[in-house]
Specification:
Keywords: Signal
Strand content: 25-35%
Shape: globular
Strand order of the largest sheet: 2-1-5-4-3
Radius of gyration: 17 Å
Number of domains: 1
Number of strands: 5
Order of helices and strands: HHEEHHEEE
Helix content: 25-40%
Distance between the termini: 61 Å
């Protein structure tokens, strides 16, 4: 019985990681690809997903254990990405959002099951040699409002 209890406890701790580190969610990929593919040549669009774990944002007066917000600058395809992230995006393990997004847009990129992403900047292209977008992703602390910000910038060509 003791071994079964230990196994169940270990499974409960690992479950968020094992499901999150598999294939990225199809709905996220659809939203991200729609966003990136909508960016026209010579156009640049951005979406920013802010998360805070353990407290609220600096500009929010009420206390909170976690918080999230998303900036889409009124761009409809970015609103779809924000809607997905606001409903399904990770707050405590926000690096999972970044890893899933990279895997969505760079299909051959995969991460090891226990790979932890706590920050970074990533650049790659999406599309063909003739049409697509240069993608810049960043995941870092936001000194202005607190927490972390995951930013996706698509620069069309």
């Amino acid at each position: 019985m003791k071994i079964l209890t230990q196994f169940l406890a270990a499974t409960a701790l690992v479950t968020p990681f094992s499901t999150a580190y598999g294939a990225p969610p199809a709905e996220l990929c659809k939203a991200l690809r729609g966003f990136v593919e909508s960016v026209q040549p010579e156009d640049k669009r951005e979406v920013a997903f802010h998360t805070s774990w353990g407290s609220n944002f600096k500009d929010a007066p009420e206390p909170a254990i976690s918080a999230k917000r998303c900036t889409h600058n009124g761009y409809e395809p970015a609103k779809v990405v924000c809607a997905y992230l606001m409903e399904h995006g990770y707050t405590e393990f926000a690096g999972i959002n970044v890893k899933n997004s990279i895997s969505c847009l760079s299909k051959k990129t995969k991460f090891a099951p226990m790979f932890s992403l706590n920050g970074g900047e990533f650049s790659f292209s999406y599309g063909s040699d003739n049409q697509g977008a240069l993608i810049d992703m960043s995941f870092k602390e936001d000194p202005q409002i607190g927490g972390m910000v995951f930013r996706v910038v698509a620069d069309g060509y």
